[in-house]
Design a protein that fits this description.
Elements lengths: L6 E5 L6 H21 L6 H9 L11 E7 L2 E10 L8 E9 L8 H15 L4 E6 L5 H9 L3 E3 L10 E6 L8
Parallel strand pairs: 4-5
Antiparallel strand pairs: 1-2, 2-3, 3-4, 5-7, 6-7
Helix pairs in contact: 1-2
């Protein structure tokens, strides 16, 4: 598949039309295949399997969501987000499961998806966006996160060796970060 047209982001909703729900399942399935091939043995495959099986409800808890990127009416990528009230003393959003299909890479899809999560986090009143990644396995993602202002931070949940955490401070209503 070749992606050549304009891109749009669409949130998954409870009443998602069948093509949107199918795209969410397919993209998270692609992410699952990548994780199986590349992630360590402690990767939460069972949790991901449940998330896919329970779509759209699994991505629609309060403060959470899934954004789908479309190019030429074809699903090109996705990203999930959720609140982190249980692990942090601040009102924070976690960016999860960023995935862009290989044919759509290099077109700004990942950047648009991350920007979409940042916008959602701001709208939810979050003071920061957190994420974790494996820099050795995902150097392009690491470059993108740093370019977008994410900074290294301590791990905010139990993680396996090789995982690094990042935080982006969001400006408050007065413009202060």
């Amino acid at each position: 598949m070749i992606y050549a047209g304009p891109m749009k982001l669409e949130p998954l909703t409870a009443d998602a039309r069948p093509p949107l729900l199918a795209a969410a399942r397919a993209l998270l399935g692609d992410y699952r295949a990548f994780a199986r091939a590349n992630a360590g043995p402690d990767f939460g495959m069972a949790k991901l399997e449940r998330e896919i099986a329970d779509l759209p409800a699994s991505q629609l808890t309060p403060g959470a969501g899934l954004l789908i990127a479309w190019i030429d009416d074809q699903p090109a990528g996705c990203v999930a987000f959720r609140p982190l009230p249980e692990v942090l003393p601040e009102r924070a959003t976690e960016l999860k499961r960023l995935w862009v299909r290989e044919a759509a890479r290099g077109r700004g899809v990942a950047r648009a998806l991350v920007a979409g999560v940042i916008a959602q986090a701001r709208a939810l009143g979050s003071t920061a966006v957190y994420l974790d990644t494996e820099p050795e396995r995902m150097p392009a993602a690491l470059r993108l996160y740093r370019q977008m202002g994410f900074e290294d931070c301590p791990l905010y949940k139990p993680s396996e060796a090789g995982v690094a955490a990042f935080r982006l401070a969001l400006a408050g209503p007065d413009g202060a970060a």
